[in-house]
């Protein structure tokens, strides 16, 4: 069994294969971008949930201590601890610790 193909048919077949490869690659890139957006959205929702849970825990403990007075030291610790944590987080968030630029050896010339 022999197949006789003209050069035009071979070029057409190669063109079709190239077009399919490009469409597949573009679809993969689009899917990757969509997945990254979905992950970023899930991170935000997860972060909001964790922050809400911790805030509820802090409020609950503070409410228990304030509702049952008697120990001034415990009251001061319970009211000051969230302030210390918030100050630490804000300080870390607003402090620049490094530059986010990357340089390659060829760029240093």
Q: Tell me how many strands there are.
A: 0
Mean pLDDT: 81
Helix content: over 70%
For the CA atoms, what is the radius of gyration?
Answer: 30 Å
Structural class: mainly alpha
State the order of secondary-structure elements, H for helix, E for strand.
Answer: HH
How many separate domains make up the residues?
Answer: 1
What would the principal axes of the Cα set say about the shape?
elongated
- Quote the distance from N terminus to C terminus: 62 Å
For the biggest sheet, the summary is: none
List low-confidence stretches: none
Number of helices: 2
What fraction of the residues are assigned to beta strands by DSSP? under 5%
Word description of this protein:
It is a single chain. The radius of gyration is 30 Å and the shape is elongated. It is mainly alpha-helical. The chain has helices at residues 7-67, 72-94. It has one domain. The model has no long low-confidence stretch (mean pLDDT 81). It contains 2 helices and no strands. 77% of the residues lie in helices and 0% in strands. This is Hydrogenase-4 membrane subunit HyfE. The chain crosses the membrane at residues 6-24, 44-66, 72-90. Keywords: Membrane, Transmembrane, Transmembrane helix.
Ordered list of secondary-structure elements with their pairings:
Layout: H1 7-67, H2 72-94
Helix pairs in contact: 1-2
């Amino acid at each position: 069994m022999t197949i006789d193909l003209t050069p035009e048919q071979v070029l057409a077949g190669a063109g079709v294969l190239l077009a399919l490869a490009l469409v597949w690659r573009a679809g993969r890139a689009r899917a990757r971008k969509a997945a990254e957006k979905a992950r970023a959205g899930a991170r935000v929702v997860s972060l909001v949930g964790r922050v809400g849970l911790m805030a509820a825990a802090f409020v609950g403990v503070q409410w228990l201590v304030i509702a049952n007075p008697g120990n001034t030291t415990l009251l001061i610790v319970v009211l000051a601890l969230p302030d210390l944590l918030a100050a630490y987080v804000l300080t870390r968030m607003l402090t620049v610790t490094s530059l986010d630029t990357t340089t390659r050896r060829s760029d240093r010339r």
